[in-house]
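Quick log. Single chain, no ligands specified.
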Amino acid sequence: MNADTPKRAPLGRGLNALFGDEPAQPAPTENASRSTSRVAIDLIAPSPLQPRRHFDQKQLDELAASIREKDILQPILVRPAREEGRFEIVAGERRWRAAQQAQLHDVPVIVREMTDAELLEFALIENLQRADLSAIEEARGYQRMLDEFGHTQERVAEIVGKSRAHVANTLRLLALPEEVQRRIETGELSAGQARPLIGLRNAGALAEQVIKRSMSARQVETLARQRGDTKKRKLSPPAPPVGKDADTRALEQTLERATGYTVNISFDGEGGIVSINYKSLEQLDDIVRLLTNAPRKAKDVGDESAGFSIKDPDRSDQI
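-> predicted structure:
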């Protein structure tokens, strides 16, 4: 990029103004693209790039009732479709669906030219800002940005204003069975509850127990250690040995809260081993990042004399 090429502004900036949450003060060159007009509702269609798939019917009914009384207060953001005279929704599909229920003939829109990549980015950011996406919908959006538009995880994190670790951990949810992913989409299971089930062959059955017993994420971690069926059961993270003293367990819990991973401490009276269990290269990358950012680190990760190891329950080698 040379010095004369205009720098692309962060997509998150100005979205509130664009969607009507605050008074819009567009630059002169953007006036035309942000002007509002009304378009026949049957000339508008959802975009196949839209990350959101689940729409709560009760919320749609409430919004439709409000629209019947007050019309749509915030315009729908659209782009021209390939077929002349028709439009594709960038942001506002829930309003469009509710307007159909309310039997509106036309709706207010902002028409804006944008590429497929920009459409997906705008749709993701708008939904994330409004907390409208399930964790699975969010993960699928990130995956499309990686697969279809060649973004790295770092670039995705920069675009949506999230940390690299958040993006990586969200993407890991796509490794869950479809039945568990559906539970997350419908809100029966949170991402925190589902994450310990990743890599387990009996994840679906365990998810049922988690929902029925309203288990916390920490309780799910224990359940996964005790009853999880992995491909190599003998390499699964070991359950804390019976009789481990309270001080050691407290230290393990402190490290687990700090890292977000299962930690095991063994002590032989003089020294011992601290191990951190991971199940994927993404998790290993996150652990390495956490350790290398620490003010003090072991001189040789994996050195037995240092008493520290990182174990992969699905691999026979150790780092």
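Residues 135-149 form the longest helix (15 residues).
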